[in-house]
Fold this sequence. Notes:
Blueprint: H1 22-32, E1 40-43, H2 50-57, E2 61-66, H3 69-77, H4 87-95, H5 104-109, H6 118-134, H7 147-150, H8 158-174, H9 198-214, E3 225-229, E4 242-247, H10 257-260, H11 262-268, H12 272-281, H13 303-306, H14 308-319, H15 325-350, E5 351-362, E6 364-366, E7 369-371, H16 373-384, E8 386-396, E9 416-425
Amino acid sequence: MNHDTSVYMQNNWYSYYAGYADGFIKEAIEEYGKCFKNPILLDPWNGSGTTTLVASMLNLSCYGFDINPAMIVVSKAKLYDVRALNVEYIQKQLLSICPLQLSEQEYSDDPLNTWFSLESLSAIRLVEEKIQNITSVSQKDRKLRRIKDICCIEMLSNEVCCFYLAFFTTLKQFGKVFVGSNPTWIKSKNIEKLTLNISDIVSVYLNNIENMKKEYSTGVNSKNIYLAIGDSKDIPLKNGSIDMVIASPPYCTRIDYAIYTKIELSLLGYSNFEVQNLRRKMIGTPTIRKNTIYDDISQNIPLPEISECCFRTMNSISAHYSKAAKSYYYKTYAQYFSGMYLSMQEIYRVLNYNGIAVIVVQDSWFKDIHVDLPGIVSEFGQSCGFSILSKTDFCVKNNLNYINSKSRKYKSVKQTVESVIILKKR
């Protein structure tokens, strides 16, 4: 299988650090899904919606779950036929907006005020209100309302999500000034807030709509695509209901996926408190959860029995001489491996017998300790009952090892490997 082939242009609508190529998924389905007449697919870490997009192009049924509401919006947007958008009409509507300043109370309650001035935020929310009017999102009154307070995110139409995706990319473009050396982190403290007017926002927004229309591949059939907020550790599906899983779990590199999408979540109306709660639920979060037992990777899980590789890695991290290795980093890795093991159990549960799981994972490093995640996930799979059909490795460079200069003192050369693991339920 070709690991990095791009096939469908709308997969480029949203830049996602952890994304993978749609061409790879297409080939995986064609190669391993042929033993099923009409395979039912699942991606429990659906992210920016690559798996669900490819499934829609192939007229297959697919479930896509992600714990991050912003990613559900992105995934739904890719399933919309953007050719239906009348850019001239949208432009006319957006340019008819009359400036209106938010009250100090509205401003202080708005999560976007972290990055935008009062003038900017007033413009952003007025543009959002006009978008809601264009897409016929119902509003009870004239008060500016956040989309998550108007309608359940999962119930938003693909059209509405397409409008919001263009808004995501618009705010991301303005918000580039808040991205530091780590591309997955958005600064929120000690920053100078941006001042924008409506014409600035509308100009960039319309340009993004135009670009989306140019980058569109026909053939989307979203009829049998089901997208919802969901946790991979508790997949809301019946036993044996899936034929094939294609997924890439969160990287084991302490990427903060909630902070990476904090501007998007703030636009949707999620407060800082809600974003913090989301962070704590995510696999790979750098935050430490309260009331968690860290003697094993989770309560009552016999670590040496399910993965000798994981057991050795955890012991090495706990014994490392570096600052906070035992007190902090050990706990973040414990949380990650616990989440991954529980997720693998869930994947095994929802698959049919002889069902196939295609899992894409990267290895990483803690200081000078190699974290062989492909090996650990393989052993987790075997412990759950999977047979390993194959494991193929690729060298990659989209890893924080190449960004974090502080880690280089521990090991000068850190070749990162991404592995495609093919598992079969027996």
